[in-house]
Design a protein that fits this description.
single chain; 279 residues; alpha/beta; D-Maltodextrin-Binding Protein, domain 2; 2 domains; five-stranded mixed sheet; 14 strands; globular
Length: 279
C-alpha cells in the first residue's frame, strides 16, 4: 500500500510540474517603455484578459522623456516603446546610428493651441509670444497648426520633417517665437501668451485638447507624421511577440478603456503599418 501511495504521489507531482512548465513555456515577458498617459494605457493592457490569452506577461516602465525612452529601446532595457509619432521617430532615426522601426500604428491625437490670455485665435494680439516644442517633429507640426489657424503662412516647399520658424513667409501679427522643452508646456502656460502642446503632455497637465485649447487639429485629417506608433529596434521588427503587442492595443476592451478614460482625445488608427511606414 505504501508503495502504491508513493507511486501515486510521484505521478501527481510530475503532472503538476509538467503543467507549470507548460504554462511558463507559453508565457513570454516583454517590457514596454512608455510615457505618462500612454503608460496608463499599457498598464491596463498588461492586466487585460487579452494579454493573458496572447501568452504575454507585460511589464511597463514609465520613463520621463522621449529621448531617454528611445535610448532604452536601443539599449535593450525595454523591448518596445509606446509614446511617439512617426514624425518624432523619423527625427530620432536621422540623428541616431541605431534605428527604431514601428510594428503597429496606435492612435492619433490633436495638438492644441492654448492660452490663458486669449479666448480665440482671432483675439491673439500683435507681437504676442508663441511657445513651440523644441524637437523637430513637434516644431514642424506646431507651425502647420498655426498656419491652419490662419496666424502665419509657410513657404511653399516647407519641410514637414524639419521645419523651423525661419520658414514663415507671412506673419501679419508679428508673432514672436520661442522654443521650449515639450514637457514644460502646461507649466509655462501662465507665463507666455500662447503655447502649443501635444495632447499627451496636455493630459499630464490636466488639460483636455477638445475642451481647453483655443484651436486644435482635427484628428481625422491629421498628417501621416502625426500618427503614433509602437516602436522596436530594427533587428527585432519581425518577432511575433512584439507584433502581438500591436494587436493587444486594438483589442475592443482596451479601446473602450481608452475612449472612456481620455474622452475621445486619442483616436484609434488601424491602418496597417506597411501603408504608413512604407517598408
Amino acid at each position: 500500500m505504501k508503495k502504491i501511495l508513493g507511486s501515486l504521489l510521484l505521478a501527481s507531482s510530475i503532472l503538476i510540474l509538467g503543467a507549470c512548465g507548460s504554462g511558463n513555456e507559453k508565457s513570454e515577458t516583454l517590457v514596454v517603455g512608455s510615457v505618462g498617459s500612454d503608460a496608463e494605457i499599457w498598464n491596463f493592457i498588461a492586466k487585460s484578459d487579452a494579454a493573458k490569452e496572447a501568452g504575454l506577461t507585460i511589464e511597463v516602465k514609465d520613463i520621463t522623456g522621449g529621448p531617454v525612452t528611445n535610448k532604452a529601446t536601443v539599449d535593450g532595457d525595454v523591448d518596445a516603446n509606446a509614446f511617439q509619432s512617426i514624425g518624432y521617430l523619423e527625427s530620432f532615426n536621422e540623428e541616431s546610428p541605431d534605428k527604431l522601426v514601428p510594428v503597429a500604428a496606435t492612435y492619433v491625437e490633436p495638438m492644441g493651441i492654448y492660452s490663458e490670455k486669449f479666448k480665440s485665435v482671432e483675439e491673439i494680439a500683435e507681437g504676442s509670444t508663441v511657445a513651440l516644442a523644441d524637437n523637430p517633429s513637434n516644431t514642424t507640426r506646431g507651425l502647420r497648426l498655426l498656419e491652419t489657424a490662419g496666424l502665419i503662412k509657410l513657404k511653399e516647399d516647407f519641410d514637414d520633417g524639419v521645419g523651423t520658424p525661419e520658414d514663415i513667409v507671412e506673419n501679419p501679427k508679428k508673432l514672436k517665437f520661442t522654443l521650449i522643452d515639450d514637457l514644460t508646456g502646461p507649466r509655462i502656460l501662465p507665463d507666455v501668451d500662447v503655447v502649443l502642446i501635444s495632447n499627451t503632455i496636455a493630459l499630464e497637465g490636466g488639460l483636455n485638447v477638445l475642451q481647453d485649447s483655443i484651436f486644435h487639429e482635427e484628428a481625422d485629417t491629421a498628417a501621416r507624421t502625426s500618427i503614433n506608433v509602437l516602436a522596436v529596434r530594427e533587428d527585432r521588427k519581425d518577432e511575433e511577440s512584439l507584433k502581438k503587442l500591436g494587436e493587444l492595443y486594438h483589442d475592443p476592451e482596451v479601446q473602450a478603456y481608452i475612449e472612456e478614460t481620455f474622452e475621445g482625445t486619442k483616436v484609434e488608427v488601424t491602418t496597417p503599418i506597411k501603408e504608413i511606414w512604407g517598408e
